Here is the input.
Amino acid sequence: MTPILLDTGDMILAGGLIVGCVALSLVLSLGIHRTLIVAGIRMAVQLVLTGSVLLFVFGRSSVWLTLLVLAFMFSAATFEVGSRQVTRLTPVWHFGIGGFSTATGTVIVVLVGLLTALQPHPWYQARTAIPMTGLLLGNVMNATSLSMNTLLSMVARERAAIEARLILGATRAEAMNGLIRQAIRTALIPTLNQMAAAGVITLPGIMTGQILAGMNPLDASKYQIVLMSLIVSGNMIGATMSAVLTSARLSDARGRLRLDHLAR
Amino acid sequence: MIEGVSAPRADDVLSRGLSVRALRNGHAGPFAFDVPAGACLVITGMSGAGKSVLLRMMADLDPHQGDVALDGRFCSGMPAHRWRRQVVYLPAEPGWWSDSVLDHMPDDALTRDLMAKAGLRGGVLNDPVHRLSTGERQRLALVRGLRLAPRALLMDEPCSALDGGTTLMVEAMMREAMAGGTAIVLVSHDAAQATRMADLRRELAQGHFVGAES
Here is the structure.
């Protein structure tokens, strides 16, 4: 189980690859060399910073420090989850629903993972809790933002169809259930693809990392199975909550469709 | 009840029919009028005068102040979906939640009967909605609404895409519903239709009724 450590030469090689891509972009007039350089530097700085922060946090093994890092991660996810929808709720509700759904889905599955399968000592140990939260948070965030995006754009587009049901005496739940289901299904498609492809078409990232770091492939696959199950559960919770909450915000207690709650 | 308006009293509304009291929102009103069961109120007015706004408030589809009573029972006093089942709004452009007509109404004797009265060929039940003409969709929406046997019908230009003969067929359906006690509020640009159908008439301009009740 000795990890193969990378040295300075390896880092220079990685940098060289990026420089090679930049050169190719120039030769082929792809026009992406600037973006490539910026993205490459950004990636390196972000990852080194993250590594350093984690090294520091792991060394302290303080609950408060761990919670601070987690709070930062959740804030960033709340911002990201709501940033790319074209049709949006008014900002407080948009980020509120996105962030709340993401956090709820993530916290539930992280706790399930930490308290049952992984059981680090103590259970909030930064070395396990932070990477695990990060992994799940990123996935739940994707599913939640897809779910919101699908529901918001469908409701705005299908206004006449939803009102046609309301006019004939449907409750708001009856009128919007079909759209909510469609939003959740759409949000889960990438996860379902990932599960179907796992091990056959792609070797999942965590498993790859653990095998490279020297873990027995069978043990690595067990890890991957547990994590994948946590991911799909978290995604399902996040996607469902955001779709239900968004549809509730787009209607009111008198069962009216309230597109005036969308941001203009 | 909604804030800022004294609650309409149950003793000054019709025991049979529609009673609108202090109904308004930011775009139109306040409105106060009665439509007895079996009567037809025709509302005329230019585009943008607030006719659809009024009908949508009456169906409780848009936020509003004031209230509407049907047969002495207030909209605010019952679940909104039960109100809308009895007070059916038929918009000028009906919405469809799937491309199959049969997802909107079953193929039964009631549907067939209403379709025949509206001059619709039986085949439209099996056609995709997008292939139907505007006039066919308008009449199918009427059939869909009348299937509920509503106590009140709020109709926004129900015959705008129909020829003269078909318009008369739809009017006959409206009279049949009125004979059964349904109150109708009809928004129409067609002066001849207004004359034929109106028991009561009001003209709407810039969100308010103008002129005298007639």
About this structure: DSSP finds six helices and ten strands in chain B.
